[in-house]
Design goal:
345 residues, mainly alpha, Dna Ligase, domain 1, two-stranded antiparallel sheet, 15 helices
């Protein structure tokens, strides 16, 4: 009987120890599981990766492992079953030291990685790819130019013009990482038309005088090219409105440069005699369309010009980047002489 009781107590002791070990192991397993689930990602730098459409959770886990973001597939699987996130396809930038919760939140947000590109005011459409290629080196300039000059494409975007020159609003854009030529153009044109809708109902503007948005952009593009000084744009726009009102040619050299894509250097007499309808040194009224892509301030200047009687302006050429303005040709010629002296002539 004694031996039996001894064996019983020994077995009970062994069983107790076994249960304690199981509890300890369970606690350790839970601790380790939480530690693995709450760990941070393996990448030391921001990683760009793509989640293709239709990717399963297992496929996403594989991509994260291959990119060196999250190598613990089991922790991913457990956390995925716990949270059941709706992971979305797209391009993502995964910062370093992210938890699984943060990674899941990003992949479920659908917030695609972007590349920010600044397009300066007053650039012609064919100049813009040079800025885009810094972020999109594979951008095809030929395709870009063909799209810009395609009337059907323009009409599909709600633009009633033969090209999109003038409709590519300068700004700083967050373009999707996989954006192509068409996507970028659509985004820029949409921004332009949004500005149109904002401007068309503003009181006391020259919208009715000019006639439509295309003509607003056309005049704004000349204003943009004539000065780099924001404060002068409204005065220069006032001069151009005065000239249009009395049937005087705009006389803007940038329109001639546009014809020959001669953006710098001298303008030759033969160019000034061009029969192109864009030659405002020769023909009255506005050109058929914009000569560049004007920014918001130049567009505002075209719609809300300064109240002035001036008909002429000439660059001071004194290093200030500003102009002399005058009401008469006599005064204009005097200022031209001053400008010539400033140039050392």
């Amino acid at each position: 009987m004694g031996d039996f009781l001894l064996n019983f107590y020994d077995m009970k002791k062994i069983f107790t120890i076994f249960v304690l070990l199981l509890v300890i192991l369970a606690i350790f397993a839970v601790f380790q599981g939480k530690k693995r689930i709450n760990a941070v990602s393996d990448n030391q730098e921001t990683v760009l990766l793509e989640i293709p459409k239709g990717s399963s959770a297992a496929k996403v886990s594989q991509i994260l492992q291959e990119k060196g973001v999250w190598k613990d597939g089991l922790a991913f699987k457990v956390r995925n079953k716990m949270d059941k996130p709706s992971l979305k396809a797209g391009w993502y930038e995964i910062p370093p030291r992210q938890t699984l919760e943060q990674i899941f939140a990003l992949l479920a947000s659908g917030k695609n990685a972007v590349r920010k590109v600044t397009i300066p005011e007053g650039r012609a459409s064919w100049e813009i790819p040079a800025y885009l290629k810094k972020a999109f080196p594979d951008l095809n300039e030929d395709r870009w130019n063909k799209l810009v000059q395609d009337p059907k494409f323009a009409q599909s975007l709600g633009v009633d013009a033969s090209s999109l020159e003038g409709y590519l609003l300068p700004d700083t854009y967050p373009f999707a990482i996989d954006a192509d030529e068409e996507t970028i153009i659509k985004q820029m044109v949409a921004a332009n038309l949004k500005l149109r809708d904002e401007m068309k109902d503003k009181p006391n503007s020259k919208w009715a005088t000019l006639g439509n948005w295309h003509k607003v952009l056309t005049l704004a593009s000349v204003v943009e090219e004539e000065t780099g000084k924001p404060d002068e744009r409204f005065l220069i726009a006032g001069v151009f409105h005065n000239r249009l009102e009395i049937g005087m040619p705009l006389g803007a050299d940038p329109t001639v440069r546009f014809i020959f894509r001669n953006l710098t250097g001298p303008i030759y007499k033969s160019q000034l005699n061009s029969d192109s309808p864009y030659n405002t040194r020769k023909f009255k009224g506005l050109m058929p369309g914009p000569i560049s892509n004007p920014g918001r301030r130049a567009i505002e200047a075209a719609l809300f010009p300064a109240d002035t009687k001036a008909l002429y302006f000439v660059a001071k050429d004194d290093g200030s980047g500003t102009h002399f303005f005058s009401n008469t040709l006599t005064d204009h010629n005097k200022f031209k002489d001053v400008a010539a002296k400033n140039r050392g002539e």
